[in-house]
């Protein structure tokens, strides 16, 4: 894209900055005279999303319109999360066209109104190119854009917020309010509490101050209350405390002590699992905690010297501590409960473009956005796999030129959004408009590396990741400088010009010093070098439009919207994943990146087929036929037999960090066997490698995460033999997602109804659904409640014959004749239901003892004196038990060899995480989704549900 002279720019131009040019927009994907919608095949689909644990329907909208190449999962998530309007009303969006048009037309109009385009023709090209990129899943804006832009509600476009709090009660209470309003809107916020006086300092009245840890309790309770008041996920928040704050030890220990409390309550019989009824009694569970360390402290740790904790009022040391001992305490706490994380203050501020306007003291909840207090950042992420191409000779290349053009397009759109955006507080709005922070990033890095034959933990993988990140940020700042020439610099630029230009030189120098590795990354580095040269040249002339350009966010929900295999900077979860099918059902498939990787590594088609078949059966590449052991590392994943080492994750973060304005949302997963010393090493190496922030998670360190059966056995074997009092409790056996079922329509005394009875594939009734009368009526509600109660009882092992004996012969209206030849008279609806269930699911001997027989059996009794069939007669009862009448068989979970291979138990899975657990015999430390019941997976520092797109943190 280039810029040319046009009429005077309008609107959002910075004070004192004169500009008289508009952007000339270049076509990337579109064709003149052809709208992007006309180039794809559209189809209608039905979206019905259920909670597989209880069978309830969470969401239903039929006949929605999407391109035929969009996956079932992407369609479901966009329809349920992003379509606006009440479901069932004429105002409800029903097509992806409506959603994209709502957003793109708002951006185009704001761009025209504020002088971004050289001509109406350029505005139209911008419209078409943005539409194409969204339609073809090349990139996506963050969730608030899809929620709010183009609607009548406030047009909030940002998901990431940083607040501030001062050492006064007025400010502290203001913090509670501002944070609550952000949580209410479904977003997250972070802040640093270090300005608040410690509990070791005096108030003006002479008493001791409460300290920040005390005030954290109130904020935590507020977050938990707002969450339970309507949201289905925890409030996302980050709390930071400086390492030199006198209360830092108490801050470090907050969650450790609460974890001990959780254990004690659990052992006393309270429900302390994530989402459990009693977990809300525990404090400090709604925030991620991080300690902000500086170079002085880290050098003291390195040398084993003392370190001073400083007064908040005077800045003078009030206590000397052993730096190494405090660092050890941080690692011990992280080992025990995953908190606190660590943020490296001097590194962060070394890359700060606006230091004259204030230091960077905090981050958003996921730690990728770091800038001034009371500010926000709107995000967008590119799908890297869309830029991997094969040339005419079949060789792979990353299309750096097209990637840069899309980055320019997206940065332009993101900056335009600030012109019309609304913000949750006036202070955040003022700061964001003055500094115009953007957060472009990417997803699918893990898939890209595997597809190109690079191990995630390899020099080649890190070189390609670094090159792409450098090109993205360099191109972003180049476009920012071009925008500054068109609509002016950000308001704070003049004051911070020297610092901003210094940071640009630091990025450029890091790009020049980076190691080139192979034919894939070298051309990308060359394009990045050219971009950074343009950044320095154009920035010197025009300044910059944006104080910040790039971050690496979790890309949770929008990653699923773009059909990405991996989120953010993360590696692949596993080689085999779960895929939903059109029309219902699911199948397990080997990731599409695996065949691409094998071809890149030089394997022939027959070899690729054999290796893929092995992976489909075993879930890993170990001993795959014909696969060289040297290539195993290419297929290492986040979980499994060959999982990536913790330092492998750290080194990847270090490869991308020098080329980002902000930071990286990522948690370094560590095995349960990890030691405190290993955590210390990771925190120390993170500082040495120039990372801005990181957090660790040791498997099974949280009480709320249940141990796998295998690990429970190992733990029990390791414990000394002592006399134990064993309390046996029933275990709920849940139905698989695909289950055989019988739907029966019936009439009892003139009252009509429907009953659906679903059973386990192997044996036995598992759940019952009853529909009577109009939805919302008292009878319908009572029948729903009754169905759930019976279903839960069945799944906990209550025999069906027990229900039959209790509920048959129960008498109440309506009663009388039925339309069922097997049950001609019923004393009540309940009497009929359990007679019908007994006939369908109980063996002859059991129901005969209860006096329940079919019409055919009663006729046989009249003729022969026996209800039972003769030996030479067809075993009708046996056939009925093996194939119930009116069985609504589940959709095939895959007719391909891939879907049938692997463990039969894999059919019990409902997400990729659960599939990995079953295949590998391990337990993933992740909560269950509150919306649909499936197990979530990590996305950066948050959790993501593959089933419905819900997240546990930032959208």
Automatic annotation (TrEMBL):
Its cofactor is adenosylcob(III)alamin. This is Vitamin B12-dependent ribonucleotide reductase. Residues 739-839 form the TSCPD domain. Belongs to the ribonucleoside diphosphate reductase class-2 family. Keywords: Cobalamin, Cobalt, Disulfide bond, DNA synthesis, Nucleotide-binding, Oxidoreductase. Residues 47-137 form the Ribonucleotide reductase class II vitamin B12-dependent N-terminal domain. Residues 1-24, 882-912 are annotated as: Disordered. It catalyses: a 2'-deoxyribonucleoside 5'-diphosphate + [thioredoxin]-disulfide + H2O = a ribonucleoside 5'-diphosphate + [thioredoxin]-dithiol.
């Amino acid at each position: 894209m280039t810029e040319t002279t046009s009429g005077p720019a309008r609107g959002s131009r910075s004070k004192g900055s004169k500009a008289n040019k508009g952007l000339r927009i270049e076509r990337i994907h579109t064709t003149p005279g052809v709208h992007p919608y006309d180039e794809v095949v559209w189809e209608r689909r039905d979206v019905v999303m259920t909670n597989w644990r209880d069978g309830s329907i969470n969401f239903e909208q039929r006949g929605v319109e999407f391109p035929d190449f969009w996956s079932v999962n992407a369609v479901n998530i966009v329809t349920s999360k992003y379509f606006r309007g009440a479901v069932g009303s004429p105002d409800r969006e029903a097509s992806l066209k409506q959603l994209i048009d709502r957003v793109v037309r708002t951006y185009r109009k704001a761009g025209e109104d504020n002088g971004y385009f050289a001509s109406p023709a350029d505005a139209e090209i911008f419209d078409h190119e943005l539409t194409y990129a969204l339609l073809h899943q090349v990139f996506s804006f963050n969730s608030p854009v899809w929620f709010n832009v183009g609607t009548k509600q406030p047009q909030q476009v940002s998901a990431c917020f940083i607040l501030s709090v001062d050492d006064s009660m007025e400010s502290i209470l203001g913090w509670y309010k501002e944070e609550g309003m952000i949580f209410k809107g479904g977003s997250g916020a972070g802040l640093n509490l270090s300005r608040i006086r410690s509990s070791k300092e005096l108030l003006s009245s002479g008493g001791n101050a409460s300290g920040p840890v005390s005030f954290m309790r109130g904020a935590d309770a507020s977050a938990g209350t707002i969450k339970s008041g309507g949201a289905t996920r925890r409030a996302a928040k980050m709390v930071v405390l400086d390492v030199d704050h006198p209360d830092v030890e108490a801050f470090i220990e907050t969650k450790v002590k609460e974890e001990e409390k959780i254990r004690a309550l659990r052992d006393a019989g309270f429900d302390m699992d994530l989402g459990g009824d009693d977990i809300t009694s525990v404090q400090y569970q709604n925030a991620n905690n991080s300690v902000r360390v500086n170079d002085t402290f880290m050098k003291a740790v390195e040398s084993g010297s003392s370190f001073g904790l400083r007064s908040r009022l005077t800045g003078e040391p009030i206590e000397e501590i052993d730096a190494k001992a405090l660092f050890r305490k941080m690692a011990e706490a992280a080992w025990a409960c995953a908190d606190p994380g660590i943020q490296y203050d001097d590194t962060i501020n070394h890359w700060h473009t606006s230091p004259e306007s204030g230091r960077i003291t905090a981050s958003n909840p996921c730690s990728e956005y770091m800038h001034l207090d009371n500010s926000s950042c709107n995000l967008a992420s590119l799908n890297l796999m869309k830029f991997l191409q094969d040339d005419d000779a079949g060789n792979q290349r990353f299309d750096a030129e097209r990637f840069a053009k899309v980055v320019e397009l997206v940065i332009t759109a993101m900056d335009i959004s600030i012109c019309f955006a609304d913000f949750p507080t006036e202070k955040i709005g003022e700061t964001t408009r003055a500094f115009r922070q953007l957060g472009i990033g990417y997803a699918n890095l893990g898939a890209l590396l595997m597809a190109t034959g690079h191990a995630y933990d390899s020099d080649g993988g890190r070189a390609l990741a670094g090159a792409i990140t450098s090109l993205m940020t360099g191109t972003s700042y180049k476009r920012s400088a071009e925008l500054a020439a068109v609509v002016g610099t950000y308001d704070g630029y003049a004051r911070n010009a020297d610092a901003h230009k210094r940071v640009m030189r630091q990025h450029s120098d890091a790009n020049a010093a980076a190691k080139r590795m192979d034919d894939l990354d070298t051309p990308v580095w060359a394009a990045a070098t050219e971009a950074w040269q343009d950044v320095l040249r154009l920035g010197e002339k025009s300044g910059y439009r944006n104080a910040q350009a790039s971050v690496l966010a979790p890309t949770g929900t929008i990653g699923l919207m773009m059909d990405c295999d991996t989120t953010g900077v993360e590696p692949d979860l596993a080689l085999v994943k779960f895929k939903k099918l059109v029309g219902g059902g699911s199948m397990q498939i080997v990731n599409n990146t695996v065949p691409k990787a094998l071809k890149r590594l030089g394997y022939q088609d027959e070899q690729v087929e054999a290796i893929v078949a092995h992976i489909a059966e075993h879930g890993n590449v170990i001993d795959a036929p014909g696969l060289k052991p040297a290539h195993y590392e290419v297929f290492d994943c986040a979980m499994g037999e060959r999982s990536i080492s913790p330092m492998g994750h750290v080194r990847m973060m270090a490869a991308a960090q020098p080329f980002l304005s902000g930071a990286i949302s990522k948690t370094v997963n560590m095995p349960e066997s990890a030691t405190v010393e290993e955590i210390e090493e990771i925190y120390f190496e993170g500082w040495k490698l120039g990372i801005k922030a990181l957090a660790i998670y040791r498997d099974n360190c949280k009480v709320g995460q249940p141990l796998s059966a295998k690990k429970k056995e190992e733990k029990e074997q390791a414990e000394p033999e002592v006399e134990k009092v064993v309390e046996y409790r029933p275990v709920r056996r849940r139905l698989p997602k695909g289950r055989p079922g019988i739907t029966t329509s019936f009439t009892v005394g003139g009252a009509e109804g429907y009953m659906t009875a679903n059973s386990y594939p192997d044996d036995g009734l598992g759940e019952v659904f009853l529909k009577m009368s109009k939805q919302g009526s008292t009878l319908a509600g009572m029948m729903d409640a009754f169905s759930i109660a019976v279903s839960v009882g069945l799944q906990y092992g209550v025999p069906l014959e027990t229900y039959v004996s209790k509920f048959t012969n129960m008498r109440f209206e309506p009663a009388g004749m039925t339309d069922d030849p097997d049950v001609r008279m019923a004393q009540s609806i309940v009497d009929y239901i359990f007679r019908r269930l007994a006939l369908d699911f109980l063996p002859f001997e059991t129901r005969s003892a209860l006096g329940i027989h079919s019409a055919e059996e009663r006729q046989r009794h009249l003729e022969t004196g026996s209800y039972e069939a003769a030996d030479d007669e067809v075993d009708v009862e046996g056939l009925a038990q093996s194939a119930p009448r009116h069985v609504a068989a589940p959709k095939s979970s895959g007719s391909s060899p891939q879907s049938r291979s692997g463990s039969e138990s894999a059919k019990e899975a409902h997400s990729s995480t659960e599939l990995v657990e079953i295949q590998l015999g391990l337990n993933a430390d992740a909560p269950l989704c509150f919306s649909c019941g499936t197990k979530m997976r990590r996305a950066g520092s948050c959790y993501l549900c593959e089933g419905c797109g819900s997240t546990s943190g930032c959208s």
